[in-house]
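Q: What would this chain look like folded?
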Amino acid sequence: MKSLRQMARLAALGLVLALGVAQTPAQSFYSLQHTNWPPLPFLPFAVTVYDFGDGIFAYDDLAVDYDQWQLARQQAMMESNPPPAPGEGGGGEPPDLPPAYNFTTNDLWVEIVLVTNKDVSLIIHAPDTNAYDLYRTFELIGNHATNSVWRWVGRGTNGQSLRFFNVRCRHAFYMLGSDVDSDSDGLSDAFEVLSSKTSPGTNHTYSAEWTDLECWLRSNILVNDPEQDCGNEQNTQFETTVAVLGNNVIVAWVDSNQGVFGLGSDPNYTQDEIHFTNRPPRLVGYAVSRDGGVTFQDMYVPPLARAGDPINDDGDAGDPVLAVDQASEIVYLSGTSPRNEGWEGIPLWKSTDGGVTFANPVIVLDGFSITNSDKPWITVDNWAGTGQHDVYLACIKSFSPTELVLTVATNGDFNQWNGPTIFREVGVENVTGLQSPIVLPGPDHVAYAFWIERTGSTPGTNWLKMRKVENRGTALGQTQIVRQLVTTNVLSGNLGLKRSNTAADNDAFRAWPFPVPAVNPATNKLGHLYVAYADRGTNFNDRADVFFTRSTDRGTNWTAPQRVNLDATSSDQWMPVFAVKPDGTQLFMAWYDRRNDTNNSLIELYGRFGTIATNGTVEFGTDFKISTTNFPPVFAGTLTNNMEVGHYDPVYPPAGVNLHWHYAEWPEPPPPPQTDLNVTFNGYIGHVGEYNGAWAEGQHVYLTWTD
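A: My prediction, written as structure tokens:
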């Protein structure tokens, strides 16, 4: 882990329509534009134009100064269609398009196909069998095509169709580029001039130490396609998870674009007919990179569990987790069950093509009265011997009695689930609350279950605890204490982090002191365990720090907690993530950090590497900043225009709003002065997400977070 690859996944945006092309060699680019899609392609310059018929043509945009082009177009439109004189109506006709050259089948271009009123399908036309990269921008600026900001959105060969979901909110230009890499730095010429803004003529544009590829991978790369927030820029994506299989990097997150109010449940309004179980919430979204994290394609949502007509599937309520069977090259993705009154269990998807596509999921624990699951967790036993390929799945059954549940698909066979085994429950040993079960197997096929629990009544005591899990999930060891937390009361996040130091005390968001565990994967460090967590800080004014503790005897004994963040401030650090190198010699931690804002508001990502000795001791290096930009905490109730018609986020809905405009079955507001009783209730108050993602393989660490 000498170098750090990092990928940021942001929240919200909006999207597109139009088209673009590029031609081999990669230094020549072309844009495709339809006459009916603004900006209208008035061409005041002598440029090469290719006529594709039906008013679709391509022009050589290397010769176009877009700033001057826009001014000239506006002037021409004014001259040919002047505003009417006072008392007169109408105006002139728009100018005719200049003559166009004929299109030939040997050209490289992109054909646009409108699939629905929201989705767009693009077909690649190429003169050869090479793969071409597709880029997109929404504004042509400056005196050259490369002045615009272009996002890589897909790759394909001649005749291949690329589909983009929920993206027809605004016009876009698309461009094709070849994979020619003149300076052999791992980035194509087209990518360098369009996306990374590095030089295709040198592989060290900005740094003598790092190549252009290394610089790009150290940047904060947007993973989700924000254009899928079409029609609602308030939509959010958060709570990431990441997995790596070979050169494929898969990232999943909670995505509100296909969400439903109340997660499809009956929100207990005064009128009982308000149900949304006919609208399955689909809150798991994912993206995949097939080039080690250089580019990502947003794959929208995984398939429904029980597709039909009418749809009889309950969808999912988010909380995605990824896992990989390395030997079988299988990627698993889980989510949690929605809160409606339908099917039980947890959806679990399986991919056999490296996480690019997932088959319809199985519903795990279906029929075991787990209709309100939370915090699902999956992992795979990847070590040779009895137990290899086993898939562990844990979750919390959050209705009375609250229980932590584990089941194992032996040999990865979804027809052979043992258990379920209850490894902790409310009501036993004065336990009054449970959350965040995580189970991780070691190289000797012994697994370890971790969780947070609360004992006693208000304020109560919060604990991080764990126990061994043997015999492929069926035999439990004694419950062990990892750490008694300083924070008390509500175990699911009462560190009391405020929006800023100057904010009111009640203007706070939840930050979870959940355990973030790891098991050393080396056979010479059997039973070496690690836990990171956030807790009250080391002085009275410090609301949260990140701590680390370890065990070398399978969890029987744990070291005194070590403060990981090295700042000398009383600002907040929380939400740690963890990854251990496959050979067990290094670990990596990252966390949210507000040390650089004197008002303790703006958030950044910091990280730290640790070297693991043979005897188990861990020596940490210095901490360092990862994120390139800071960002404020954004949580439910902060966006006042969410109260307006047309602004609605199914994950973060504001309270007191009538959503008849969004849901036809929602009753209309009564006429004044009657009180509208059918309004939204408080949901996810003070919620900014619960976790980020990290993965270690070979020489690289992959990190995902919400910005």
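The longest strand covers residues 248-258.
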